[in-house]
């Protein structure tokens, strides 16, 4: 950092961030201008992207100049990016989780990594409810048929939520919020989370069950976990086989939690009556995912879970304040 100031502080992971009055901050994904305003008002120099994320090559060429990096989902902060980041002290993710950042590579180089948990909970939970309802009533398909000039009343027989069981995998901020709202629709809400206690789940109105019961009992399964070695391909041929006939799957969490080929086979066989997908193993989905996206029982959105004005403002504001505080060496939030 240029003009490095006096104090140095130790973050929660034992990583040192040195205070600076004028750090150089790169936002390699487009971000709400609130982040730029806050960082500049705290004395930092900020470079932003207008519309598109930086390519990996552009990022590697530029990153050596910067003390802090702000990303959303588009930028993958891989070990080779870290290798080029001679001055980097902090990576701040304007979103939930840090799965697009190579944490071992960051830790090895003493780079602090932070995220903004909670800032987009409402947005992601609301999209999930929208997906559950749209799936149950075939809304996107009916809209498409109206636009094509048809009046297909018989084709779009729906299914009520009241009286149905929703199985939530992951009972963190979003999972618990979705659970609360599903209860308001008269659904039975069951959930699995290896970390959440039975009491905490029950306090949120969710019956804590083993994972096997999620597959066996749910009419709708909604995923709300990070992508980890335990959750990768969690919904697969084997687990789908254990599900009720006509199960509906919702993934507004992370691509890769659902095995896309196995889901397509379950949709083709009719085992799975529908799927709502906001996220994909690879984004945008490659040509080999086209059959899944095009399947008549699949509704999908291009990773819109956090795409509300309110959530984008909140994540931008949170990440900017967190980075500025860490650069000052005063607070280490979201690490
Ligand atoms: P959170 O950290 O509050 O909750 C995640 C929960 O998953 C935790 O309670 C954790 O114990 C649980 N979990 C971890 N491994 C598990 C496993 N193997 N089985 C069951 N549960 C497990 O996170 P959150 O804010 O609720 O976010 C949930 C997911 O949604 C994250 O992957 C996040 O990145 C994603 N998300 C997506 C969007 C979007 O744009 N689609 C927006 C926001 C969040
Ligand atoms: C998140 O995890 O916060 C989201 O997937 C949204 C995003 O990265 O834009």
From TrEMBL:
Segments forming a coiled coil: none
Subunit structure: Homotetramer.
Family named by the database record: Belongs to the D-isomer specific 2-hydroxyacid dehydrogenase family.
Identification of the protein by name: D-3-phosphoglycerate dehydrogenase
Biological source species: Cafeteria roenbergensis
């Amino acid at each position: 950092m240029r003009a490095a100031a006096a104090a140095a502080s130790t973050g929660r992971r034992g990583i040192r961030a040195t205070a600076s009055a004028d750090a150089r901050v790169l936002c390699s994904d487009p971000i709400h201008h609130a982040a730029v305003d806050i960082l500049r008002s705290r004395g930092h120099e900020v470079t932003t992207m207008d519309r598109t994320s930086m390519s990996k090559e552009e990022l590697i060429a530029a990153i050596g100049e910067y003390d802090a990096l702000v990303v959303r989902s588009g930028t993958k902060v891989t070990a080779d990016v870290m290798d080029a980041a001679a001055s980097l002290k902090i990576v701040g993710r304007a979103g939930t989780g840090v799965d697009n950042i190579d944490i071992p590579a960051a830790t090895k180089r003493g780079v602090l990594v932070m995220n903004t948990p909670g800032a987009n909970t409402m947005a992601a939970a609301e999209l999930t409810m929208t997906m559950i309802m749209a799936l149950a009533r075939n809304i996107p398909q009916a809209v498409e048929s109206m636009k094509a000039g048809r009046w297909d009343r018989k084709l779009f027989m729906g299914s009520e939520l009241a009286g149905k069981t929703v199985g939530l995998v992951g009972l963190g901020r979003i999972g618990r919020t979705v659970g609360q709202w599903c209860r308001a629709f008269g659904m039975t809400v069951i959930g699995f989370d290896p970390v959440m206690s039975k009491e905490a789940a029950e306090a949120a109105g969710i019956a804590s069950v083993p994972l096997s019961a999620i597959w066996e009992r749910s009419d709708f399964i909604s995923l709300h976990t990070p992508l980890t070695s335990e959750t990768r391909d969690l919904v697969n041929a084997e687990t789908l086989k254990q599900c009720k006939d006509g199960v509906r799957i919702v993934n507004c969490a992370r691509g890769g939690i659902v095995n896309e080929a196995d889901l397509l086979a379950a949709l083709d066989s009719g085992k799975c009556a529908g799927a709502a997908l906001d996220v994909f193993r690879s984004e945008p989905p490659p040509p080999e995912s086209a059959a899944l996206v095009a399947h008549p029982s699949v509704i999908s959105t291009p990773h819109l879970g956090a795409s509300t004005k309110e959530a984008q403002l909140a994540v931008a504001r949170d990440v900017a304040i967190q980075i500025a505080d860490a650069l000052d060496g005063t607070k280490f939030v979201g690490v």
